[in-house]
Specification:
heterodimer, A: alpha/beta, Rossmann fold, 9 helices, B: alpha/beta, 2 domains, 6-stranded mixed sheet, 4-stranded antiparallel sheet, 10 helices
């Protein structure tokens, strides 16, 4: 059942993923509305990346179901892949291709036509402040720019839902601010953003967040609601209260 | 009062790679028991400073001493007193979590009794206990980082150098990790740490903001915001994107507007600019407050000025 605008950009019911005896994702229910900036927080090893990989159609769930842009991933993984953008923790750029060539390559991977690749490549490079560096190699640029290029590659095909797995890890505060301006632009342009981070100040920038611990969702709400309900002054404080030591 | 001699002493340090100047005229001292933080954007020269202190890179000019030993003339002496965790720490991917820890304990010749106590403490901080038997190759990025940290902390040299140790590490483990650093400092170790997290900068005894190989400012973290030479407004608006667009069109030139979730931060200079900002937002249902700058605000504006110079 495909609709133009589904009620939820991401919906999961009882989503579970096991590896042998280890339950990485344990009975997770999530409902993310279109255009939300949803912060997906949690401890290391809590199951965040596994959940994202299931939602991107890269892993098959052991139980439960997930709908992405209204499509069930169990039967429509290929269609889901075309509607999402995914920027992984260790984003993969081709270091021996220039910025422009990386954009062209990913445009091809996402099935854009040649004129679309030129048009979108130019628009994305412009939006991300990369136009002046199109002929440079990623290795000549600071990490903040490489990370913007990785974001650019994941939005070339104008995905409706963007999964960003720790996109700002190890990046300095100036580059992080620039990156969040881009996230806001994409959200205002109509995209749903599903983002993980270990920076609790970034958690405050999200419309709603969930906190995952040992495969389960242990907190869900807007940063304001979570701070109020846990009697906490900051998201850092909320995190430390809900994640079991 | 007892003035301890510094554990690390850097004087007029200079290092260039070809035409690229990595470190320029850098001087600083780290005392025993002190956590010294290096903060700055990528390419600021933080890693080069750390490699010089670790006697891995020779300076082109100036002097670097660790526990009284010159890194240029006595690098092996220096290495006896330091522990160094580079940004890309090598774990043995085929060894399990427990085996990696044991391997590094052997390497550092940690006595058995001490090793048992320390391993327990490190397992507690890292929460890697349930993953003891997992091979390092199969850990998530953050867990690998925590294991690398645990391996580095198996021994307790006089000077510990940690290059962005907590990147990718979750807030709970970061808190516990910093508690360990505090304990180490209290027992007299000197620590040189770089971090992109501003909340961690606040946990250092002293910090230096680095940019283009130079120290922009240094001091106790709570004193850094005094270097903020602008004014800061916080704007809480019902429609934040609209308020931001409006400010960018009708606000005064030369202001910086950043969005932080349900609010905007505006950096400006003059009372006249503030009037323009307020009148520009008159039709928005916006609440406007004057707020004190954070260490991050200070860092960001100092960097902008440093780049445009």
């Amino acid at each position: 059942m495909t609709r133009a605008q589904p009620e939820y950009a991401v919906l999961t019911r009882g989503l579970t993923k096991r590896f042998d005896n280890f339950t990485a994702v344990d009975d997770v229910d999530l409902a993310v509305r279109p255009r939300e900036i949803f912060g997906f927080l949690g401890a290391n090893g809590a199951g965040k990346t596994t959940t994202i990989r299931v939602l991107c159609g890269l892993l098959v769930p052991s139980a439960g179901e997930a709908w992405v842009d209204g499509l069930p991933i169990s039967s429509s993984a290929d269609q889901v892949k075309r509607r999402i953008g995914y920027m992984s923790q260790r984003f993969s750029l081709y270091m021996d291709l220039t910025i422009g060539e990386n954009l062209e390559f990913y445009g091809g991977v996402y099935g854009l036509s040649a004129p679309e690749i030129t048009e979108r490549g130019t628009a994305v490079a412009e939006q991300l402040g990369l136009s002046a560096f199109r002929d440079r190699l990623p290795s000549d640029l600071p990490p903040g720019y490489r990370q913007r290029l990785a974001l650019g590659c994941s939005v070339l095909h104008q995905p409706r839902i963007l999964f960003l797995d720790e996109p700002t890890g190890g990046v300095d505060p100036v580059a992080r601010r620039t990156f969040w301006d881009l996230i806001y632009d994409l959200s205002e342009g109509g995209a749903t953003v599903f983002v993980t981070t270990h920076y609790m100040d970034e958690a405050e920038y999200c419309g709603r967040v969930s906190i995952m611990d040992r495969g389960r969702i242990v907190a869900l709400g807007s940063p304001q609601e979570l701070k109020r309900s846990h009697g906490a002054v900051s998201m850092q404080d909320v995190f430390l209260k809900v994640v079991q030591p | 009062m007892n003035y301890a001699s510094p554990s690390v002493r850097l004087a007029h340090l200079h290092k260039a790679y070809g035409k690229t100047v990595a470190v320029e005229e850098l001087s600083l001292e780290i005392l025993p028991g002190e956590i010294f933080g290096l903060i700055g954007p990528d390419g600021a020269g933080k890693t080069t400073v750390m490699r010089i202190v670790a006697a891995l890179t020779l300076p082109d000019g100036g002097q670097a001493e660790v526990m009284g030993h010159d890194v240029a003339t006595h690098p092996m002496r220096v290495k006896e007193h330091i522990g160094y965790m580079p940004q890309r720490f090598s774990l043995y991917p085929d060894l399990t979590v427990a085996e990696n820890l044991r391997f590094f304990a052997d390497l550092y010749k940690v006595p058995t009794a001490e090793r048992i106590v320390r391993e327990q403490r490190l397992m507690q901080f890292s929460r890697l206990g349930p993953f003891r038997k997992r091979r390092a190759a199969q850990l998530s990025g953050g867990m690998k980082q925590k294991l690398a940290l645990a391996c580095t902390l198996m021994h307790t040299p006089e000077v510990l150098i940690l290059d962005e140790p907590t990147t990718g590490v979750d807030p709970l483990s970061r808190q516990e990790f910093w508690a360990i650093l505090r304990e180490l400092a209290a027992s007299g170790q000197a620590l040189l740490v770089s971090t992109p997290y501003m909340d961690e900068a606040l946990l250092c005894h002293r910090v230096a903001l680095m940019h283009n190989g130079r120290v922009l400012t240094a001091g106790q973290p709570h004193d850094i915001p005094a270097h903020f030479k602008h004014r800061l407004l916080e704007i809480v608006a019902g429609d934040v994107p609209r308020a931001r667009k409006r400010l960018l069109t009708c606000g005064p030139a030369g202001i910086q507007v950043s969005r932080f979730g349900d609010r905007l931060h505006v950096v400006y200079g003059t009372a006249d600019q503030e009037r323009q900002i307020r009148s520009c937002l008159a039709e928005e249902s916006a609440e406007i407050f004057t707020v004190p700058p954070s260490i991050e605000d200070t860092f960001v504006t100092l960097m902008h000025e440093g780049s445009s110079r």
